[in-house]
Amino acid sequence: MRAAAAAAAAPAAIVKSRASLWPRCWDSGLPLQPPPPPHRRPICHANPRLPTTSSSARPIVDMSYARHFLDFQGSSIPKSMQKLVVTQLSPNFREAVTLLRDCPVPLPGDGDLLVRNRFVGVNASDINYSAGRYSTSVKIPFDAGFEGIGEVVALGLTASAKFTIGQAVAYMTPGSFAEYTVVPAKIAMPVPSVKPEYLTLLISGTTAYISLKELGELSEGKKVLVTAAAGGTGQFAVQLAKKAKCHVIGTCSSAEKSGFLKSLGCDLPINYKTENVGAVLKREYPEGVDVVYESVGGEMFDLAVNALAIKGRLIIIGFISGYQNPTGLSPVKAGSLPGKLLKKSASVHGFFLNHYFSEYQKAMDHLLKMYESQKLVCEVDLGDSSPEGKFTGLESVFRAVDYMYMRKNTGKIVVELPHSVNSKL
To answer: Where are the annotated segments for Disordered (predicted)?
Structure first.
C-alpha cells in the first residue's frame, strides 16, 4: 500500500520540485547545472521487475531531468533579453514600437516551448497590428511581431511529449520580435532545420494557398492577375496559379522584379513604374481576367475591378498602399463598384487568414512537401541590397519595415537574430 501511494504521488512531487527549481536557476544568470543526485532512490524511477503498461511506458525520471527543461548541453539561457513592444498605437511603426533591452526571459508553462529565435518575418500587417486595427480591445503595451523560427531551448513537461531541446520549430503567434518567445506546443511546427525559407510559408505561403484554393476556383486556362507579385505573398500566388495551369499576369515595380517573376513562370510581368497597367490589361486581355489576387488597394484596386471578366472574382488579401495612413485606407471608386460588379456578374471576396485556421495545418503540410521536393521557390529578402546592409538584430526590424513600404523587397522580408558567441546551439 505504501509503495502504491508513493508511486501515485510521484508526478505531483516532480512537478512541484521542477516549479521550485526554475526561478532559482533562471535568476542566477549562470550556466544551468543539474541538481545534485538525491540521497535516496528516486520514487519515480520505473521498477524494471514490474510489468510495463502503456500508461507507464514513458516513466518520469529523477530530478536531474529538470536540466532537460531549462538548458541544452550546458549553454546559458540569459536572465534578460531584447524585444520590440508596441508602446503607443500609431500607423507609424517607428513611433509605435520601442526596442526594450532588459526584459526578463519568459518561462514556458507546462504545455509551452521557449524558442530562441533565429529568424523573424516582417509583414505588411505589422503596421495594422501596431496601430491597433485588428482589435479595438487591445491595450498597450503589447509585444510586436507575428512569426518566427528557431530552436527549442526550454519546455514544459507536457510539451516534452512531442518536442525536445534543440529541435527546430517554426511558429505563428504574437510576440515574435524578441530574442526568446514562449510558444504553445500545440501551434508549434517542427521543421527540418532553421532555414528562413520555412518562415516564408507561415503567413505568406498559407495566405496564398488557402485564399486561392477556397475563393479562386482556379482551373486550367484561367487568366489570373497578381498585384505586388514579387512580394512575400505574391510570389506564392504566382507559383500556385501556374501549378493550376493558369495564365498569370503579375504587377511589380522594377525590371529586376520582372525578371524574378519570369523565373517563377509568370506569363506577363507588368512594371507599373514604366508601363500603364490599365492600358496593358485592356490591350492584352480585352475580355478581362478571371481572377485577381489583390494586396495593394487604392488605384490598383480600381484597375483590377475594371479588368475583371464576366463572372470574374477579385480576392482582397490586403491593401498595403493605405496601411501607413491614419485611416488605413487609400481612396477607391467604391461608389461605382456595385454597378460594375452587377454588369459583369463579378464578385469581390475578402480573405483574412485568421478565419481559415481550420485549413491551416493542411496548407502548411502541402507547402512544406512542395518546398522539400523543389516544386516551390521560397524567396527570402534579408536586406543584402538595402542601403545599410543586411537586416541583422531586432533594431533592424525598423529598417526592414521601411524597406517593405518603399517596395524594395523581392520575396519575403526576414530579419536574422544573431546569437551570443557563448551559445552552443
So the answer is: 32-51
